[in-house]
Write a structure and sequence with these properties.
Number of strands: 3
Distance between the termini: 105 Å
Number of domains: 1
Length: 117
């Protein structure tokens, strides 16, 4: 049979209570530390995944920016060609090729973009 020792002084009782409370608090703080460690690991993994997604989207944006730049250059070339063609202002049936674009005149003498060669 288990029997509790007789506590003869209040000082001994207070020390035993403090030891029990200290052990309980140590166990609770250890558990909290373990929980926080696991949570921080989960957050680190989530941050790594988000960083990978952001990097992937940055590459896509970079590719789209290059395409936009390419089309912007082509639009500029076509605008320049149309201006040159309109400045020719002739009534003859003339086809002019400038930078691989073929331009033909309309019945009013204004040139139009016929197509790319």
């Amino acid at each position: 049979m288990f029997s509790l020792p007789i506590i003869r002084s209040p000082k001994t009782l207070a020390i035993r209570i403090l030891v029990i409370v200290a052990l309980i608090l140590a166990g609770a703080s250890g558990g909290a530390a373990a929980y926080l460690f696991v949570k921080s690991s989960d957050l680190a993994e989530a941050n790594d995944a988000q960083a990978a997604l952001i990097e992937e989207q940055a590459k896509k944006i970079e590719g789209l920016s290059a395409k936009i730049s390419k089309y912007d250059k082509r639009i500029s070339e076509i605008s320049t060609i149309k201006e040159l063609a309109n400045n020719l202002n002739t009534d003859n049936n003339v086809y002019v090729t400038i930078k691989n674009y073929e331009i033909g005149n309309t019945t009013s003498g204004q040139f139009k973009l016929v197509g790319e060669r």
